[in-house]
Design a protein that fits this description.
By secondary structure, this protein is of the alpha/beta class. The chain is built from two helices and seven strands. The longest helix has 11 residues, at 6-16.
Length: 104
């Protein structure tokens, strides 16, 4: 199951206004602070779970979905956030370009 909050849907509605809606992939990415879930536009693949949520198609690799379910796409003060049952270890960043030098 994927839950899309009303506030996150509003952001997607604004993004796709006047455009054709494309599938939205939820995936694991890594950066200064460690691994986290992210979203991006992508086509569905055979090994994906597909979900139609409030007029949007979300795709997630089946193995990732089994580990992460349920997923919730929400809007926070700093942007879209995807929460799940996965627990990611937070690491102190080594780059100085984000967070004003993470860990300082």
């Amino acid at each position: 199951m994927i839950e899309l909050t009303d506030s996150a849907k509003e952001v997607l509605d604004q993004h796709f206004e006047g455009k054709e809606k494309e599938p939205i992939r939820i995936f694991v990415t890594s950066g200064c602070g460690g691994a986290r879930l992210a979203m991006g536009l992508d086509t569905a693949k055979e090994e994906d779970e597909k979900f139609d949520v409030n007029g949007y198609e979300f795709v997630v690799d089946k193995e990732l979905y089994e580990q992460a379910k349920p997923l919730k796409v929400d809007l926070t003060p700093i942007g879209i956030d995807i929460s799940s049952s996965l627990v990611f270890e937070h690491t102190e960043g080594s780059c100085g370009s984000c967070c004003g030098g993470c860990g300082e």
